Amino acid sequence: MTQVVCDCAVTLDGFMAGHNQSLEQPFGDIDRDALTAWMFRTPEERSAEDGMRTGIGAYIMGRNMFSPDRGEWDLDWRGWWGEDPPYHAPVFVLTHYAREPLPMEGGTTFHFVTDGIESALAQAREAAGDRDIAIAGGATTINEFLAAGLLDELRIHRVPAVTGGGVRLFEGVGPLTLEAVSTRQAELVTHTIYRVLHD
Amino acid sequence: MTQVVCDCAVTLDGFMAGHNQSLEQPFGDIDRDALTAWMFRTPEERSAEDGMRTGIGAYIMGRNMFSPDRGEWDLDWRGWWGEDPPYHAPVFVLTHYAREPLPMEGGTTFHFVTDGIESALAQAREAAGDRDIAIAGGATTINEFLAAGLLDELRIHRVPAVTGGGVRLFEGVGPLTLEAVSTRQAELVTHTIYRVLHD
Asked: What pTM did the predictor assign?
């Protein structure tokens, strides 16, 4: 059965990004290296088993993760990732502003969804078929899915830094019970896979 | 060399206790079982390697961890733990109110320190000799030691529950870099040992 999964890099004090995110600093005023250095290590540091999930049929992301701007679209903006984004699948972007689908190279097409997370999830399910759906971020979007009980698996990549401020994973997410399925300590990060227990 | 260490049970969203701590609910309005159930498992779940640190020469704790009351001492209050507390070593209690040392059974003596964490640490060092010193809690006291750069090793016992509110580990602790030394996944908890990197 299709699972809704999410990979997130989180500081020891629970932040996924700093304050003041912008074009110049997409992660905001956080120590970005502390948060992401592990992603650029050797393949064994980011194997399919312990690193990012592979075989995803569709992605969902927040507007903030796709674009540094708010409001009406600047149609010249085609995402942070160049002409061949690393998704290679449909990506459903949550936004208040309609926009035509944006096909990129390598199989990635950005679709813009203006009627909320349940609609985005329905469209992602349709696109993904039997494969899993990943919530790509950012923290606000992940928290919305968690609060709505729509996430099945959370893969936390915990970096050993305390940054002191920013956007928190789990902010505003009510009581929730998970189960830790497995943990692996890599050189720069602790990978733990959690299953969200639905009542 | 003597290390200053700390074991703490923390929820997935970073809380060590709920709000409204009292005599009736020393952990406040948090799901206490979620936080502490792992402590009452079989010995292999709480081995010396992965569970609580052993061989401690002295402990330091906050007033709040010793007593549910504030202000002047009720001298009938002898701690939460009965006549034979589980410390079996000197315990230095941070407080604004002086009180005579309180010897208990089994080697535990509570000493009351009114002149701050550095004084408590100096007294604990004197008492511990070559052995390590443990910060017993609660979160506020641990955060004070972290912020002052006085903690060497943090052993986080992470339970897979999101509780949504309470007293946070790392609250008000500025930027800090740690190193994850090892991690082990037990049935109910993920044990990770961190070394605090001092500049």
From this structure: 0.91
pLDDT tens for B140-161 read 999 999 999 999 999 999 999 9
Please report, for the domain that includes residue B38, its CATH number: 3.40.430.10
Q: Is residue B75 one of the residues assigned to a domain?
A: no
Determine whether A7 is exposed, middle or buried from the number of CB atoms within 10 Å of its CB (0-12, 13-18, 19+): buried
ipTM, interface predicted TM-score of the complex: 0.89
Give the tokens for residue B174.
């500025």
Q: How many CB pairs under 8 A join A and B?
A: 93
Q: Is B161 on the interface with A (CB under 8 A)?
A: yes
Contact yes or no for A169 and B13 at CB 8 A: yes
Nearest CA in chain B to A178: B160
Q: Domain count of chain B?
A: 1
**In A129-167, which positions are buried (b, 16+ CB within 10 angstroms) versus exposed (e)?**
eeebbbbbbbbbbbbbbbbeebbbbbbbbbbbbbbbebb
**Residue ranges making up the domain that contains A135:** 4-18+26-191
Closest to B160 (Cα-Cα) out of B135, B191, B139: B191
CB < 8 Å to A199, chain B: none
d(CA A58, CA A108): 9
Contact across the interface for A31 and B175, Cβ inside 8 Å: yes
Best B151, B183, B189 residue to mutate vs chain A (most A CBs within 10 Å) = B183
Which tokens in the block code for residue B74?
């009720």
What does the longest C-alpha to C-alpha distance in chain A come to? 45
